[in-house]
Design goal:
This protein is an all-alpha fold. The protein has three helices and no strands.
Length: 79
């Protein structure tokens, strides 16, 4: 998975919200509440998976910026 700078920042922002949800689920699983714990872990995983795979209208400016940054910040492979 080759992530650019903007993709990495987007993933980090998603993880800031998804990790507490998933950790709550793990806590509930350890406490014996398997249904609620499994649901919270599933929601945390889905938050990350859907953010990576779905393209929303707000992602389009980021995709354009990523393409521009990729063209501007290229390095010579011949050196």
């Amino acid at each position: 998975m080759n992530l650019g700078v903007l993709d990495t920042l987007s993933l980090a922002a998603t993880l800031v919200f998804a990790l507490p949800v998933a950790l709550l689920g793990v806590n509930r699983l350890v406490a014996g509440d398997t249904l609620v714990g499994g649901a919270f872990v599933g929601v945390g995983v889905l938050m990350v998976v859907l953010q990576e795979w779905l393209t929303t209208p707000s992602d389009l400016p980021g995709a354009v910026a990523q393409r521009v940054v990729g063209r501007v910040a290229t390095t010579d492979d011949e050196e």
